[in-house]
Amino acid sequence: MTILKLNPEQMSTHTSPFSHIVCHEKSSLAFLSGQTAVDRDGTLVGEGDAARQTEQVFKNIEAALESLGESWASVISLTTYLTSYEHMQAFRETRARLFDSYFPDGGHPAHTLLVVAGLGSPQHLIEVEAVVAHSLTGSSGVNVAEEPG
C-alpha cells in the first residue's frame, strides 16, 4: 500500500511538518489539511478580518481541489474552526456567498463548525479542513512523497 502526501505548487510553502493533501492508493478519498488564510507565499491575508480570511481559506481549498483535478462538487465534508463566536456572522455570510457559486444546485457537503480557543497562530481566525472524493488517477501539479502504508 502507498500513501501519497501532496504539496501542490499553487499552495503555500510551509516550515511545519505536514502535507496539504494526503491520499491512499486504495481509497477514493483525499484529506486536505486545515487551511488558514495564508497566500501562496505564506503571507497572512486579512489580519483581523474574518470575512477576508474566510475568502482566502476557501481560495486555498479551491487550489487544492484544482491540483487534484477535482471541483467543489467532490467535497464530501468540511470541518471549520473559528477562534471566536464574534467571527460567526462574517464567516456565515461569506460562506453563503461563496457556496452560491460553488454549489449552484444547493447540494452542500456535510459541515461541522467548532469554536476553539485558538489555532496555530494567534492571527489566524479560521481554519477549514476537507474530505474529498478522489481517485488517484489524474492528479496533476503536485509534489508527491510516497510512504509504505
Nutshell version of this structure?
With 149 residues, this protein is of the alpha+beta class. It has helices at 50-67, 88-102, and strands spanning 2-8, 21-24, 29-35, 75-82, 110-115, 126-133, 142-148.
Terminus-to-terminus distance? 5 Å
Number of strands: 7
The shape is globular
What level of helicity do the residues show? 10-25%
Q: Provide the residue-averaged pLDDT.
A: 87
Biggest sheet layout: 7 strands, mixed
Radius of gyration: 15 Å
Beta-strand content bin = 25-35%
Query: Could you spell the SSE succession in H and E letters?
Result: EEEHEHEEE
Widest β-sheet, arrangement of strands = 5-4-6-3-2-1-7
Count every helix, treating DSSP H or I runs of 4 or more residues as helices.
2
Uncertain regions spanning at least 5 consecutive residues = 139-149
Structural class, by secondary structure, is alpha+beta
List the SSEs and their pairings.
Layout: E1 2-8, E2 21-24, E3 29-35, H1 50-67, E4 75-82, H2 88-102, E5 110-115, E6 126-133, E7 142-148
Please, could you describe this protein's structure?
There is one protein chain. The protein is an alpha+beta fold. The protein is built from two helices and seven strands. It has helices spanning 50-67, 88-102; strands at 2-8, 21-24, 29-35, 75-82, 110-115, 126-133, 142-148. The protein has a seven-stranded mixed β-sheet with strand order 5-4-6-3-2-1-7, with helices on one face. Helix 1 runs parallel beside helix 2 (88-102). It is globular and about 45 Å long. The termini are close together. Mean pLDDT is 87; it is low at 139-149.
